[in-house]
Each structure stands twice: as C-alpha cells, then as structure tokens.
Amino acid sequence: MRASEADQERDRREAREAGEHPRKAAVFGTGSWGTAFAAVLADAGCRVTLWGRRPEVVEAINTTRRNPGYHPDMELPAGVRATTQAAEAARDADFTVLSVPSQTLRANLESWREMLHPGTVLVSLMKGVELGTAKRMSEVVEEVAGVPAERVAVLTGPNLAWEIAARQPAAAVAACADEEAARAVQSACHTPYFRPYTSTDVVGCELGGAVKNVIALAVGIADGMGLGDNSKASLITRGLAETTRLGLAMGAEAHTFAGLAGMGDLVATCSSPLSRNHTFGTNLGRGMTLQETIAVTKQTAEGVKSCQSVLDLARRHGVEMPITQTVVGIVHEGKSPHVALKELMSRSAKPERA
Ligand SMILES: NC(=O)c1ccc[n+]([C@@H]2O[C@H](COP(=O)([O-])OP(=O)(O)OC[C@H]3O[C@@H](n4cnc5c(N)ncnc54)[C@H](O)[C@@H]3O)[C@@H](O)[C@H]2O)c1
Ligand SMILES: O=P(O)(O)OC[C@H](O)CO
Question: Which residues are recorded as binding sn-glycerol 3-phosphate (predicted)?
Fold first, then answer.
C-alpha cells in the first residue's frame, strides 16, 4: 500500500472509530464523466447514489456494477448504487454533483431543486456556458437552486473520463468561493490516483474548462486538415492567450490559466483522441458536414454549442477571441475550414501578449 493509501485508510478507520458516518454524494448524470467520477468518490470513501434518467442504465449499474454504454470495462465500486428517482439520489447528500450536458442543466435543476438536501454543497463537473444567457454553470446553479456562491463548487482539470475510470493518475482543481467548501470537495474525491487541488477562482476554473473545448475543436479541425504540430502548438498557445484575456476581463486570476484548469486541461483535450471535442473537430476538418459529424458523435461535445456563448461573453466584455470566432464560423456559419484558416492567418500583425 502506498503512503497516501495508508493515510487515507487510517483516516477512514479513525472516522469509523469516532462514529462518523461516511459522507454521502449524489451524482446526477450516468454518462461518461458522471459514472467515472462516482467511482472516484466511492474510492475516496463516500457512499454514492447515481441518478440516471434511463432505467436500463440504472438497472445495469445495480445488477452488473457496470455502465455498458459508457464504461464497459470499469467495475464500479460497491459504494455506488443507481436510481432513476431524483429525490432518492438527493436525500441526505453532503455533496450534490451535477454532470448532465450544460445546455440541459437549467431545466433539470428546476425539477430537482425542491429535493436538494439542506446544506448540501453543489458541485458542477460541467464544462459549458449557457446559450442565450452566457452564464457559467455555477451561475446557473446559484440562480436555479437559490443557493449562495459559498455552496457551489466546480471540479475541473485534465480529466478524460476513460483514463480516470482506468485509475490512471491525474490532478484536478476543486474551486469554490468558500475555501472550506473547496477543501471539503477536495477531501471527498481525493484518492491515490486522483489528486485535487483547491482554488477560490471559480470564474477562471470554469472558463478554462469551457474555452478549452472550443480550442480543442480548432485543433481537431487542423488535425483533420492534415496540419502538423507547429499549427497545433500555435493554436493551443494563442488559444490559451485568448482564454486568459477573457478571464482577466471577467475578474479571473491569471495564474489559474497556467494551472490545471487552464493549460492542463487544454493540453489534455487538444492532444487526446479520447476528447469528444477534438474528435468532433477532426471530423469537420476531414470534410464531414456538421450534420454528418453530429450523427457520428455519441456523447456530449460541449464546445459545439458553447463556442457561441463564449463568443457572446467575449463581445459583452469587449475581448477579441479570433480562434473562437473562427470555430463559430466553421461550425455554425458554414465557413470552409480552408477559408477560415486563411482569414485567421491574415489578421493584422501585432506584438505577442496575452
Ligand atoms: N467525459 C469526460 O471526459 C469529461 C471530463 C470532464 C468533464 N466533462 C464534462 O462533464 C459534463 C458531462 O459530460 P459527460 O462526458 O458525462 O457526457 P456524456 O455525453 O457522456 O453523458 C451525458 C449524460 O447526460 C444524459 N443526458 C443527456 N441529455 C440529458 C437531458 N436532457 N437531461 C438529463 N440527462 C441528459 C445522458 O443520457 C448521459 O447520461 C460535460 O459538461 C463535460 O464537458 C466530461
Ligand atoms: O471529451 P471532451 O472533449 O469533452 O474532454 C473531456 C474533458 O473535459 C478533459 O478534461
């Protein structure tokens, strides 16, 4: 047993001996990340109830300990059970973890809000920005659930669900305006393979997660067009520059973008064939139409919709985001990747700065 495992086992034993109950987490969403993160929480010692809308998925999880559609090879720990009943999932939950597609959060949470356990910390795993309102997920949570920012946390970072499900080592950030709540989330999901840090920069952490999906679409498009590593590195670096520019205009801290929620997640997503956003972009770059690409995409690629709300945010804050604008042009305005690339490269020359 490694030192940290031994420490954690000792903490759990001491908690049991002190008569403390294991923490309870409700995870809403039995997709790729909701399922993998439920396993992380259980591995960290939480009792976990997963809410899923599809009875056959819930049934499979409870009877086979597997989620065949998303993680056929991962056996879920005994501490995870599933239900289709939101009230049952939410009951007594110290942590209420939200992992549905960003654009569905508002409607879902409206139907769950009466069931939330008083005092629960709501944790968003989502990496999108709401269309129309341009609100970040934590803002939607505060508004719909009617809870203060001090009880809304965000968990983000370079966390491709399949790698986490295989218990490969990774780090993350648990961010909340209230440092103590961030530490509680950190402790609830800290395992020998999953190492969360804390932050109070919720704005920066959420923007890092949402905008990297847009940049991953751009990098995927470049890959699909057959472009090489110089092009990719340029998109990643200038993508981080425009993310940071937006973040600073919105009150985020610069160092967040150099950390796990910024650079870390950007690099993982832009370089991995496991990334749905990267793959979506690659298909577009290879010449598939938007409709063809949507048809072959079985999971949520948040950047496809959120590129529009990120651009909306950029305009509201008077920030230039040329890569995001290019992605919106290709994905939503029918611009050919070749024309869009030419336009991106022919922008006026300027000094390098964030
Ligand atoms: N998969 C990853 O590697 C990963 C890692 C970190 C963060 N995230 C983020 O987590 C969030 C969830 O992603 P995911 O990978 O689990 O997506 P997914 O597509 O794998 O799963 C989405 C889940 O939501 C359900 N769903 C779809 N529409 C719904 C609706 N209208 N109401 C209720 N449920 C609905 C689906 O049935 C599925 O269970 C996204 O914001 C994503 O950016 C994903
Ligand atoms: O598969 P993607 O593109 O949604 O990316 C997954 C995670 O956000 C990586 O951290």
Answer: 127, 157, 212, 265, 275-277
Gap from CA of 2 to ligand 1 centroid (Å): 32
Known catalytic residues are 212
CA nearest ligand 1 atom 41, residue? 126
Domains of the chain: 3-200 (3.40.50.720), 204-345 (1.10.1040.10)
pTM above 0.90, yes or no: yes
Q: State in Å: Cα 162 to ligand 2 middle.
A: 10
Average pLDDT score over residue span 126-137: 98
**DSSP sequence for 51-91:** E-S-HHHHHHHHHHS-BTTTBTTPPPPTTEEEES-HHHHHT
161 lines ligand 1 (CB under 6 A): yes
Ligand 1, closest atom to CA 161? 3
Per-residue pLDDT tens digits for 88-99:
999 999 999 999
| pLDDT tens column, 274-321 | 999 999 999 999 999 999 999 999 999 999 999 999 999 999 999 999
Instruction: Decide if the complex's ipTM is over 0.95.
Output: yes
Q: Are 247 and 196 in contact (CB under 8 A)?
A: no
% the chain with pLDDT above 70: 94
Q: Is the CB of 23 under 6 A from ligand 2?
A: no
